[in-house]
Write a structure and sequence with these properties.
Mean pLDDT: 83
CATH topology of one domain: OB fold (Dihydrolipoamide Acetyltransferase, E2P)
Distance between the termini: 40 Å
Strand content: 35-45%
Low-confidence stretches: 111-121
Number of helices: 2
Largest sheet: 5 strands, mixed, barrel
Radius of gyration: 24 Å
Number of strands: 6
């Protein structure tokens, strides 16, 4: 059997850390994940996927992620049946996180950070090279790979 899920998207709200009665950390949050296919003339659609993280993963998410943060989640899909306050039977599907990672730039995931570049020197440009900057490689031998 194989139950494997991997998603990457943005948090729809700030994650909230809770504790069970046995003092185990749990954090539930929703990730907005864009769909791959876009119908011509329409906007890209997104799916809103519920995720639950436990223990250290829960504490990690609540500490370092906030609404709008890019996040990558690996885990397994789990369904559960429950009854709402009106007695209606409901079914929920969620990802139980095994591994959670940052996505995007460092500044994107830190609260209140500016979008300053990671370095101050401009990247080198090779578009201004002239013919003298290159040399021909003789093709008398076979390449070594």
């Amino acid at each position: 059997m194989l139950n494997c899920a991997a998603i990457m998207g943005r948090l729809t709200a700030d994650p909230e850390l809770k504790k069970t009665s046995q003092d185990i950390s749990v954090c539930s949050f929703t990730v907005a994940v864009d769909r791959n296919f876009v119908k011509q003339g329409e906007e890209r659609q997104a799916d809103f996927i519920d995720v639950t993280a436990w223990r250290q993963q829960a504490e990690f998410v609540s500490r370092f992620f906030h609404k709008g943060s890019m996040i990558a989640v690996n885990g397994s899909i789990q369904t559960r049946n429950w009854e709402d306050k009106n007695g209606n039977k409901r079914k929920s599907t969620e990802i139980i996180a095994d591994n959670i990672s940052f996505c995007g730039g460092k500044n994107e995931n830190s609260a209140g950070a500016s979008a300053a570049p990671a370095f101050s020197e401009p990247a080198p440009s090779y578009s201004t090279a002239d013919e003298g900057d290159f040399q021909e490689i003789p093709d008398e031998d076979d390449l070594p790979f």
